[in-house]
TrEMBL record:
<dbReference type="Pfam" id="PF01121">
    <property type="entry name" value="CoaE"/>
</dbReference>
<comment type="pathway">
    <text>Cofactor biosynthesis; coenzyme A biosynthesis; CoA from (R)-pantothenate: step 5/5.</text>
</comment>
<keyword id="KW-0418">Kinase</keyword>
<dbReference type="InterPro" id="IPR001977">
    <property type="entry name" value="Depp_CoAkinase"/>
</dbReference>
<keyword id="KW-0963">Cytoplasm</keyword>
<feature type="binding site">
    <location>
        <begin position="14"/>
        <end position="19"/>
    </location>
    <ligand>
        <name>ATP</name>
    </ligand>
</feature>
<keyword id="KW-0173">Coenzyme A biosynthesis</keyword>
<dbReference type="GO" id="GO:0004140">
    <property type="term" value="F:dephospho-CoA kinase activity"/>
</dbReference>
<protein>
    <recommendedName>
        <fullName>Dephospho-CoA kinase</fullName>
        <ecNumber>2.7.1.24</ecNumber>
    </recommendedName>
</protein>
<dbReference type="InterPro" id="IPR027417">
    <property type="entry name" value="P-loop_NTPase"/>
</dbReference>
<keyword id="KW-0808">Transferase</keyword>
<keyword id="KW-0547">Nucleotide-binding</keyword>
<comment type="function">
    <text>Catalyzes the phosphorylation of the 3'-hydroxyl group of dephosphocoenzyme A to form coenzyme A.</text>
</comment>
<keyword id="KW-0067">ATP-binding</keyword>
<comment type="similarity">
    <text>Belongs to the CoaE family.</text>
</comment>
């Protein structure tokens, strides 16, 4: 039996969405990571990687045949047309990977974990959207500590993501993750109990 419905889980950098997803997984819920799907579609042996190398030149490949992400970023960074070509190739493939993984999920509901749930159009793949939210100062502190990067770099990522107020306005459910991990887990468990009462039609 496949899952009755799919929840979208998102949040800005440093919000704690990965920690929330990990706890949902511990509760037995299948989580499909959109970022992981994006990596799968360009693995060696996949058709997309051959198309990318054919379009941009073999310079975008590592010596072992895997994708050289830095070289690809450099190739599309200054050329919007090349970025659009890449997105047109990859986005449908990523969507297929996500749908296939969700179709295999056998938990009462499944979760699509996506940092760009609302920006990417992936909201259309889910019944409800859960936002893990945190004040911007806390996002900065967490991301700088976790990734060992400068504040300016985290601010640049924040600026590229959907503004916090817009993300919250699009949410069906919100967890305010401004406390400790135990508090986050309690909130996840509270929503999990609620989600178990929903079927595909109600969600």
């Amino acid at each position: 039996m496949t899952s009755a419905w799919t929840l979208g889980l998102t949040g800005g950098i440093g919000s704690g969405k990965s920690a929330a997803a990990e706890h949902f997984a511990r509760l037995g819920i299948t989580c499909v990571d959109a970022d992981q799907a994006a990596r799968w579609v360009v693995e060696p042996g996949r058709p997309a990687l051959a198309e990318i190398a054919g379009h941009f030149s073999p310079a975008v490949l590592q010596p072992d045949g895997s994708l050289n992400r830095a070289a690809l970023r450099a190739a599309i960074f200054a050329d919007p047309a090349q970025r659009r070509w890449l997105e047109a190739l990859l986005h449908p493939l990523i969507r297929q990977e996500i749908l296939a993984a969700l179709a295999r999920a056998a938990s009462p509901y499944a979760i699509l974990v996506s940092p760009l749930l609302f920006e990417s159009g992936q909201r259309a793949l889910v019944r409800r959207g859960l936002v893990i939210d945190a004040p911007e100062a806390l996002q900065l502190e967490r991301a700088m500590r976790r990734d060992g990067v400068e504040e300016a770099q985290v601010r640049a990522i924040l600026a590229a993501q959907l503004p916090r107020a817009e993300r919250l306005a699009k949410a069906d459910d919100v967890i305010c993750n401004d406390g400790d991990l135990a508090t986050l887990h309690t909130e996840v468990e509270r929503l999990h109990s609620f989600y178990l009462t929903l079927d595909g039609g109600q969600a």
